Amino acid sequence: MSEVSRAEYCVIACAEAWRDNGEVLASPMGLIPSIGARLARLTFSPDLLLTDGEAMLVRPDGTPEGWLPYRQHLALVSGGRRHVMMGASQLDRFGNQNISCIGDWQRPTRQLLGVRGAPVNTLNNPTSYWVPRHSRRVFVEKVDMVCGVGYDRAAGARYHRIPCVVSDLGVFDFATPDHSMRLASLHPGVTVEQVREATGFDLTVPDEVPPTREPTSEELRLIREVIDPACSRAREVGS
Protein backbone atom coordinates (compact mmCIF):
# COMPACT_ATOMS: atom_id res chain seq x y z
CA MET A 1 0.00 0.00 0.00
CA SER A 2 1.19 3.53 -0.79
CA GLU A 3 1.67 6.20 1.84
CA VAL A 4 -1.43 7.00 3.89
CA SER A 5 -2.88 10.41 3.06
CA ARG A 6 -4.15 12.99 5.53
CA ALA A 7 -7.66 12.41 4.21
CA GLU A 8 -7.38 8.71 5.00
CA TYR A 9 -6.27 9.45 8.56
CA CYS A 10 -9.36 11.66 8.85
CA VAL A 11 -11.54 8.82 7.57
CA ILE A 12 -10.07 6.49 10.20
CA ALA A 13 -10.63 9.07 12.95
CA CYS A 14 -14.25 9.53 11.89
CA ALA A 15 -14.80 5.77 11.72
CA GLU A 16 -13.45 5.41 15.27
CA ALA A 17 -16.24 7.68 16.51
CA TRP A 18 -18.68 4.79 15.94
CA ARG A 19 -16.54 2.07 17.53
CA ASP A 20 -18.47 -0.02 20.09
CA ASN A 21 -21.70 1.89 19.41
CA GLY A 22 -23.68 -1.27 18.77
CA GLU A 23 -26.99 -1.14 16.92
CA VAL A 24 -27.44 2.62 16.58
CA LEU A 25 -28.36 4.78 13.62
CA ALA A 26 -25.21 6.35 12.19
CA SER A 27 -25.93 9.77 10.66
CA PRO A 28 -22.76 11.13 9.04
CA MET A 29 -23.06 14.58 7.48
CA GLY A 30 -20.28 15.18 4.99
CA LEU A 31 -18.13 13.14 2.65
CA ILE A 32 -15.33 11.96 4.94
CA PRO A 33 -17.70 11.14 7.85
CA SER A 34 -19.82 9.12 5.40
CA ILE A 35 -16.79 7.14 4.25
CA GLY A 36 -15.85 6.66 7.90
CA ALA A 37 -19.29 5.36 8.88
CA ARG A 38 -19.31 2.87 6.01
CA LEU A 39 -15.80 1.73 6.93
CA ALA A 40 -16.85 1.22 10.55
CA ARG A 41 -19.83 -0.86 9.43
CA LEU A 42 -17.62 -3.04 7.22
CA THR A 43 -15.04 -3.64 9.95
CA PHE A 44 -15.32 -3.15 13.71
CA SER A 45 -18.94 -1.94 14.06
CA PRO A 46 -21.01 -4.43 12.02
CA ASP A 47 -24.24 -3.65 13.90
CA LEU A 48 -24.37 -0.01 12.79
CA LEU A 49 -27.52 1.06 10.97
CA LEU A 50 -26.91 3.16 7.87
CA THR A 51 -29.67 5.15 6.22
CA ASP A 52 -30.24 6.74 2.84
CA GLY A 53 -31.54 9.84 4.63
CA GLU A 54 -35.13 9.12 3.70
CA ALA A 55 -36.93 5.88 4.52
CA MET A 56 -34.50 3.03 3.92
CA LEU A 57 -31.79 1.32 5.90
CA VAL A 58 -28.92 0.56 3.54
CA ARG A 59 -25.85 -1.60 3.29
CA PRO A 60 -22.43 0.07 2.97
CA ASP A 61 -22.75 -0.08 -0.83
CA GLY A 62 -26.04 1.85 -0.66
CA THR A 63 -28.38 -1.00 -1.55
CA PRO A 64 -31.51 -1.33 0.64
CA GLU A 65 -31.54 -3.79 3.51
CA GLY A 66 -34.57 -2.59 5.44
CA TRP A 67 -37.31 -0.02 5.88
CA LEU A 68 -37.11 2.72 8.51
CA PRO A 69 -40.58 4.19 9.16
CA TYR A 70 -40.53 7.83 10.23
CA ARG A 71 -42.05 6.90 13.59
CA GLN A 72 -39.18 4.49 14.28
CA HIS A 73 -36.65 7.03 13.06
CA LEU A 74 -37.95 9.54 15.63
CA ALA A 75 -37.81 6.88 18.36
CA LEU A 76 -34.12 6.29 17.58
CA VAL A 77 -33.39 10.03 17.44
CA SER A 78 -35.09 10.87 20.74
CA GLY A 79 -33.95 7.80 22.67
CA GLY A 80 -30.19 8.05 22.40
CA ARG A 81 -29.90 5.35 19.71
CA ARG A 82 -28.50 7.60 17.02
CA HIS A 83 -24.96 8.98 16.67
CA VAL A 84 -24.69 12.02 14.43
CA MET A 85 -21.50 13.52 13.04
CA MET A 86 -22.30 17.09 12.04
CA GLY A 87 -20.31 19.96 10.61
CA ALA A 88 -19.70 23.23 12.42
CA SER A 89 -19.19 26.82 11.31
CA GLN A 90 -18.10 27.62 14.87
CA LEU A 91 -17.22 25.48 17.91
CA ASP A 92 -16.19 26.64 21.36
CA ARG A 93 -14.23 24.98 24.16
CA PHE A 94 -17.32 23.28 25.62
CA GLY A 95 -18.62 21.95 22.32
CA ASN A 96 -21.29 24.57 21.62
CA GLN A 97 -21.79 24.61 17.85
CA ASN A 98 -23.03 27.29 15.47
CA ILE A 99 -24.32 26.68 11.94
CA SER A 100 -26.85 29.53 11.84
CA CYS A 101 -25.20 32.93 11.40
CA ILE A 102 -22.04 34.96 11.91
CA GLY A 103 -22.40 38.09 13.99
CA ASP A 104 -25.31 39.25 16.11
CA TRP A 105 -28.42 37.14 15.51
CA GLN A 106 -30.62 40.22 14.99
CA ARG A 107 -28.24 41.74 12.40
CA PRO A 108 -25.89 38.98 11.24
CA THR A 109 -23.00 39.71 8.92
CA ARG A 110 -23.49 36.32 7.26
CA GLN A 111 -26.47 33.98 7.11
CA LEU A 112 -25.62 30.27 7.23
CA LEU A 113 -27.73 27.08 7.25
CA GLY A 114 -29.94 27.96 10.17
CA VAL A 115 -30.38 26.07 13.44
CA ARG A 116 -32.03 23.09 11.72
CA GLY A 117 -31.97 19.91 13.83
CA ALA A 118 -28.87 20.72 15.89
CA PRO A 119 -30.65 21.23 19.28
CA VAL A 120 -32.55 17.93 18.96
CA ASN A 121 -29.44 16.10 17.81
CA THR A 122 -27.24 17.30 20.64
CA LEU A 123 -29.75 16.94 23.47
CA ASN A 124 -31.23 13.60 22.48
CA ASN A 125 -28.37 11.54 21.06
CA PRO A 126 -24.57 11.55 20.88
CA THR A 127 -23.21 14.12 18.43
CA SER A 128 -19.67 14.32 17.09
CA TYR A 129 -18.29 16.97 14.74
CA TRP A 130 -16.22 17.05 11.57
CA VAL A 131 -14.21 20.17 10.60
CA PRO A 132 -12.28 19.85 7.32
CA ARG A 133 -10.43 23.17 7.78
CA HIS A 134 -9.20 23.72 11.33
CA SER A 135 -8.88 27.47 11.98
CA ARG A 136 -9.57 30.23 14.49
CA ARG A 137 -12.66 31.11 12.46
CA VAL A 138 -14.16 27.76 13.44
CA PHE A 139 -12.61 27.06 16.86
CA VAL A 140 -13.70 30.24 18.64
CA GLU A 141 -13.79 31.54 22.21
CA LYS A 142 -17.57 31.99 22.03
CA VAL A 143 -19.97 30.97 19.27
CA ASP A 144 -22.15 33.75 17.84
CA MET A 145 -25.25 31.59 18.27
CA VAL A 146 -25.73 28.25 20.01
CA CYS A 147 -27.28 25.67 17.70
CA GLY A 148 -25.70 22.45 18.94
CA VAL A 149 -25.62 22.38 22.73
CA GLY A 150 -22.30 22.05 24.54
CA TYR A 151 -21.42 20.57 27.92
CA ASP A 152 -21.83 23.85 29.81
CA ARG A 153 -25.47 24.14 28.68
CA ALA A 154 -26.67 20.55 28.73
CA ALA A 155 -27.25 19.92 32.44
CA GLY A 156 -29.92 17.26 32.89
CA ALA A 157 -30.02 16.20 29.23
CA ARG A 158 -30.11 12.43 29.51
CA TYR A 159 -28.52 11.50 26.19
CA HIS A 160 -26.25 14.50 25.63
CA ARG A 161 -22.70 13.45 24.75
CA ILE A 162 -20.01 14.72 22.38
CA PRO A 163 -17.76 11.72 21.72
CA CYS A 164 -15.24 13.58 19.56
CA VAL A 165 -14.37 16.39 17.19
CA VAL A 166 -12.31 15.41 14.15
CA SER A 167 -10.48 18.03 12.08
CA ASP A 168 -7.82 17.94 9.39
CA LEU A 169 -5.24 18.46 12.16
CA GLY A 170 -6.27 15.95 14.80
CA VAL A 171 -8.90 14.47 17.08
CA PHE A 172 -10.36 16.21 20.12
CA ASP A 173 -12.51 15.10 23.03
CA PHE A 174 -13.91 16.51 26.28
CA ALA A 175 -12.24 14.15 28.76
CA THR A 176 -11.38 16.91 31.24
CA PRO A 177 -12.82 17.73 34.68
CA ASP A 178 -14.88 20.64 33.32
CA HIS A 179 -15.65 18.96 29.96
CA SER A 180 -13.62 21.50 28.01
CA MET A 181 -11.99 20.47 24.75
CA ARG A 182 -8.81 18.39 24.85
CA LEU A 183 -6.38 17.41 22.12
CA ALA A 184 -6.69 13.61 21.96
CA SER A 185 -4.46 12.79 18.96
CA LEU A 186 -2.46 14.44 16.19
CA HIS A 187 -2.54 13.43 12.56
CA PRO A 188 0.95 12.60 11.22
CA GLY A 189 2.94 15.70 10.24
CA VAL A 190 0.96 18.00 12.56
CA THR A 191 2.49 19.60 15.65
CA VAL A 192 0.91 20.76 18.89
CA GLU A 193 2.04 24.28 18.05
CA GLN A 194 0.13 24.19 14.75
CA VAL A 195 -3.03 23.13 16.55
CA ARG A 196 -2.68 25.81 19.22
CA GLU A 197 -2.06 28.48 16.58
CA ALA A 198 -5.19 27.42 14.67
CA THR A 199 -7.43 27.35 17.78
CA GLY A 200 -9.06 30.49 19.17
CA PHE A 201 -9.16 29.37 22.81
CA ASP A 202 -6.85 27.69 25.33
CA LEU A 203 -6.99 24.01 24.49
CA THR A 204 -6.16 21.34 27.04
CA VAL A 205 -3.06 19.52 25.78
CA PRO A 206 -1.71 16.43 27.60
CA ASP A 207 2.02 16.08 28.20
CA GLU A 208 2.07 13.25 25.65
CA VAL A 209 -0.25 13.48 22.64
CA PRO A 210 -0.53 10.19 20.72
CA PRO A 211 -0.74 10.04 16.93
CA THR A 212 -4.02 9.24 15.25
CA ARG A 213 -3.99 5.50 14.66
CA GLU A 214 -2.89 4.18 11.31
CA PRO A 215 -5.35 2.31 9.11
CA THR A 216 -4.76 -1.38 8.64
CA SER A 217 -3.98 -2.71 5.18
CA GLU A 218 -7.52 -4.08 4.96
CA GLU A 219 -9.03 -0.74 5.94
CA LEU A 220 -6.94 0.99 3.28
CA ARG A 221 -8.10 -1.54 0.70
CA LEU A 222 -11.73 -0.93 1.62
CA ILE A 223 -11.33 2.85 1.48
CA ARG A 224 -9.45 2.88 -1.82
CA GLU A 225 -11.07 0.00 -3.69
CA VAL A 226 -14.56 -0.45 -2.27
CA ILE A 227 -15.91 2.67 -0.56
CA ASP A 228 -14.20 5.54 -2.39
CA PRO A 229 -12.33 4.27 -5.46
CA ALA A 230 -12.71 7.70 -7.14
CA CYS A 231 -10.66 9.24 -4.29
CA SER A 232 -13.27 11.93 -3.69
CA ARG A 233 -11.94 12.19 -0.11
CA ALA A 234 -8.90 14.08 -1.43
CA ARG A 235 -11.15 16.93 -2.58
CA GLU A 236 -12.19 17.57 1.03
CA VAL A 237 -8.79 17.13 2.68
CA GLY A 238 -5.61 17.30 0.66
CA SER A 239 -2.59 15.09 1.26
UniProtKB/TrEMBL annotation:
Pfam families per the UniProt record, alphabetical: CoA_trans
UniProt cross-references to Gene3D superfamilies, sorted A to Z: Glutaconate Coenzyme A-transferase (3.40.1080.10)
InterPro entries in alphabetical order: CoA_trans_fam_I, NagB/RpiA_transferase-like
Source taxon at top rank: Bacteria
Protein family (similarity comment): Belongs to the 3-oxoacid CoA-transferase subunit B family.
Protein name: CoA-transferase
Organism of this sequence: Streptomyces longisporus
Taxonomic placement: Bacteria, Bacillati, Actinomycetota, Actinomycetes, Kitasatosporales
